[in-house]
Amino acid sequence: MKRQLRQWRERFSELGNRLGDRHVRLAVTGLSRAGKTVFTTSLIHFLRHLRHEAHGALLGIESVEGVEVQGSPSLDAPLFPYESVIDRLGGTQPRWPESTRSVSEIRLAIRFRPRQTLLTRGERTLYVDIVDYPGEWLLDLPLLDADFGDWSRAMLALCETEPRRTRARDWLAFLGGLDPAGGVDPAVLREGTRLYREFLRACRSEPPALQLLQPGHFLMPGDLEGAPMLEFFPLAVPAPGAGEPSALWTELERRFEAYKQHVVRQFYERHFSRFDRQIVLVDLLSVLEDGPAAYEDTRRAVAAILEHFQYGQGAWWTRLFSPRIDRLLFAVTKADRVSRSQSPLLRELLARMFSEPENDIAFKGVAVKTLAVSALCCTQDARCTVEGRPLSCVRGIPEGQDEERVVFPGQVPGEPPLPGDWPDYAFMAFRPPRLADVHSAALPQLKMFEVVRFLLEDRLA
Ligand code: GDP
Q1: Cα 94 to ligand 1 centroid, rounded to whole Å
Q2: Residue 417 and residue 291: Cα distance in Å, rounded?
């Protein structure tokens, strides 16, 4: 009851802000390791230094007066660790942040002077809320529309092809050995869950790494580790007319529904149902490295997730009560891993990868943009010559090394390669650069201003 009251209070104050169109809730969506934490940190840091960057005129306003981090907008969500990530990246031995293990939020207040007219005078404040969460949990959203039978059928169908078939061998053998008339033995539930989890972990960690892995909390349980709700697995769907479902089926179905209700729905309603703007981050270079199965898997996973956001413009009064996303940005992350001249190729590849969902969403009147970005540039362009031919190289500290080097980072293809003809891509990973004073300016980045302009410009008017 208390919790509900608090939620209503938060929503009420959010509504107050929306009335003046002074509130933007940003969804930074991306699968695990897509680069959400570094991107969110770099975006906040960029906004914090917008005042110094003479960007006001480019944003169509007089000036940005200052940007403040105001804490977490929700009383029960921890604050996104912006300060500690910045300290880590800006230290004398810069290090990448730890991967996200739970949900966190942050609110920024942007104080600005709009173009001074008779109607708009003085200063205004735009509040921007951002949510960070483990990418694995995003994959749970498609479960909201599925029942246990749909889900089991879909998961088992995926296991009919490689690389899942081999990785699921032990778990599938366990399913094959189950006695359909056997009762509900807790040891059997535990063993089935253990094998299914092992299978999911193998799919995530063995190359090619896959993304469409459900339930997401099996890989990243947060504070639900060991909860009985997290003990279930897909089961072959009983044939039509086969009589009453077995006790095992009924129990697994009950747990699946409890998981949806108490984990997925709560997560969605608490953090995901009220967005105005969305950024979809994709680590396309790693997807290319992982090959055609990973490419197809990522495409499907992102498309399935996109179906769970609400898009469209709607009248302003309907948006007050049920906000809908009216701007969507697709971004390739870590574009600094290759030379700057390859950014357009990355952008084009991403646009082709999500051409269908992008088209469907744009049809609803949503503004959609695609960019290749780097939240933290670890390299600079360098030219080198090999056998008399100039080559686009980059200069940076390769991961696992201590010294800066000029390297050929690899070539991004002009279009998606044919599945049977997929080259062995190997793009280099880099350590974060040493920065003289991380608090004096935005992080070195690519296209962050374009990101800000696309997401916020109309709300600053
Ligand atoms: P998350 O799991 O989506 O939150 O991903 P992170 O933001 O933690 O990033 C995962 C990893 O990607 C980092 O540890 C870095 O190795 C790499 N990375 C993230 N952003 C960048 C970037 O802008 N440039 C480069 N070169 N690497 C990045």
Answers
A1: 13
A2: 9
Query: Where residue 241 falls among pLDDT bands split at 50, 70, 90?
Result: confident
- Whether the pLDDT of residue 200 is over 60: the answer is yes
- Best mutation site among 334, 431, 451 for ligand 1, i.e. most ligand atoms within 8 A of its Cβ? 334
Partner residues linked to 26 by β-bridges: 130, 277
Choose the residue to mutate in 43, 96, 219, 407 for probing ligand 1, maximizing ligand atoms within 8 Å of C-beta: 96
Beta bridge partners of 63: 113
E strands, 114-246, where? 124-132
- How far is 256 from 278, CA to CA, in rounded Å? 29
Confidence of residue 165 (pLDDT cuts 50, 70, 90): very high
pLDDT for residue 178: 92
346-355 residue pLDDT tens: 999 999 999 9
Q: What is the pLDDT of residue 5?
A: 66
pLDDT (0 to 100) of residue 242: 72
CA 370 centroid distance within chain: 15
Instruction: Please state the atom number of ligand 1 nearest to the C-alpha of residue 281.
Output: 3
195, pLDDT greater than 80 = yes
Looking at the CA of residue 41, tell me the nearest atom of ligand 1.
Answer: 7
What's the 92 CA to ligand 1 centre distance in angstroms? 19
Contact 314, 324 (CB under 8 A): yes
What are the distances in angstroms from CA 109 to CA 15, 24, 72, 127, 459?
16, 10, 12, 5, 13
Give how far Cα 340 sits from Cα of 88, 378, 380, Å: 26, 12, 8
Q: Check pLDDT > 60 for residue 16.
A: no
Residue from 33, 298, 338, 447 to probe ligand 1 pocket by mutation (most atoms less than 8 Å from CB): 33
> Cα–Cα distance between 234 and 81 in angstroms, integer?
36
Q: Is the CB of 38 under 6 A from ligand 1?
A: yes
